[in-house]
Design a protein that fits this description.
With 281 residues, this protein is α+β, with helices and mostly antiparallel strands. The protein folds into 2 domains: 5-156, Jelly Rolls, CATH 2.60.120.10; 170-273, Homeodomain-like (Arc Repressor Mutant, subunit A, Orthogonal Bundle), CATH 1.10.10.60. The chain has 12 helices and 9 strands. It has helices at residues 5-10, 98-101, 118-129, 135-156, 164-169, 174-182, 190-196, 201-212, 216-233, 238-244, 250-261, 265-273, and strands at residues 13-23, 27-29, 36-44, 46-49, 55-58, 62-66, 72-76, 82-91, 107-110. It has a 5-stranded antiparallel beta sheet, with helices on one face. A 4-stranded antiparallel beta sheet has the order 2-7-4-5, with no helix packed on it. It is globular. The two termini are 36 Å apart.
């Protein structure tokens, strides 16, 4: 059972290197560019100040992961500075996509506690230090691979306590979540999902809500609407989208969309793309 591939095929990640080398002065990020960030501290000392003003002193090589736009400061130690590789990142489907929304605001992990990422980290650092042609393109792809491996690490080590990723890390819930992800067009009942998890209906519903933070029905609605939003951004006709995500008509999708978001698909597109945005028919 592959818990990540469908998620990543729908809400893939794109990374873009913007710093490689020594950081000698404070770097400030205000979150206004609508991108997340990943920073790799390779050597030196670094203070990270998060959006709440809390300081984290890093004294060994570490990964700093901010999956959504977030104000933060990086303050290198004096006088040696800090050796850093930094990339911005976006997930397909916008800032509120279900994959990034299921991740914490901030993760700080020592590199020596991430054995699954070790080979990719070595490759990143070697490539960053070399002057080969295509260096930045290679580093962008390696950062994307690193993020996927980090997601795998979080699943394998139960690194999150609630939300979709926590559900995928739960051996009793993972299969039913994967089934919803793979086949959102099907009319999944709680009884069918419970059967996928080899649990009684009542036990499944209670456990799902405790781990994921939503009822199974609410989660399926959220997943379908997230897929619909992504397809609307791509310019897909709403008549096709409705069938793909499990609604018998565009009007049925519009009712579900309004129930979840508080607005119609057309109004949501205007809020995303500005006045005059059109939904294909």
């Amino acid at each position: 059972m592959d818990r990540l591939s469908t998620l990543l095929s729908q809400f893939g990640v794109r990374a873009s290197l913007f710093h490689s080398g020594k950081l000698c002065g404070m770097a400030s990020y205000d979150g206004a560019d609508q991108r997340g960030h990943i920073h790799l501290l390779q050597a030196g000392r670094l203070t990270l100040q998060d959006s709440n003003g809390s300081d984290f002193l890093l004294t060994r090589p570490s990964l700093i992961f901010l999956p959504r736009p977030s104000r933060h400061l990086l303050i290198p130690g004096e006088p040696e500075g800090a050796q850093l590789l930094c990339a911005s990142m976006t997930f397909d489907g916008g800032v509120g996509n279900p994959l990034s929304a299921s991740l914490p605001d901030l993760l700080v992990l020592p590199l020596d506690e991430l054995p699954l990422l070790a080979d990719t980290l070595r490759w990143l650092f070697v490539e960053a230090a070399a002057g080969h042609c295509g260096r930045e393109a290679v580093l962008d792809r390696l950062f994307e691979l690193l993020i996927i491996l980090l997601l795998r690490h979080l699943l394998d080590h139960h690194g999150l306590s609630t939300g979709m990723m926590a559900g995928l890390a739960d051996s009793r819930l993972a299969r039913s979540l994967v089934q919803m992800h793979n086949a959102p067009h099907l009319a999944w009942s709680v009884a069918e999902l419970a059967s996928e998890s080899n649990m009684s209906r009542a036990a499944y519903a209670a456990h799902f809500r405790a781990v994921v933070g939503q009822t199974p029905a609410d989660y399926l609605l959220s997943w379908r609407i997230s897929l619909a939003q992504k397809r609307l951004r791509e310019g897909r006709p709403i008549t096709l989208i409705a069938d793909e995500v499990g609604y018998e008509s565009p009007s049925a999708l519009a009712r579900a969309f309004r129930r979840k978001t508080g607005c119609s698909p057309r109004d949501w597109m205007k809020s995303v793309a500005g006045e005059g945005a059109e939904i294909a028919h």
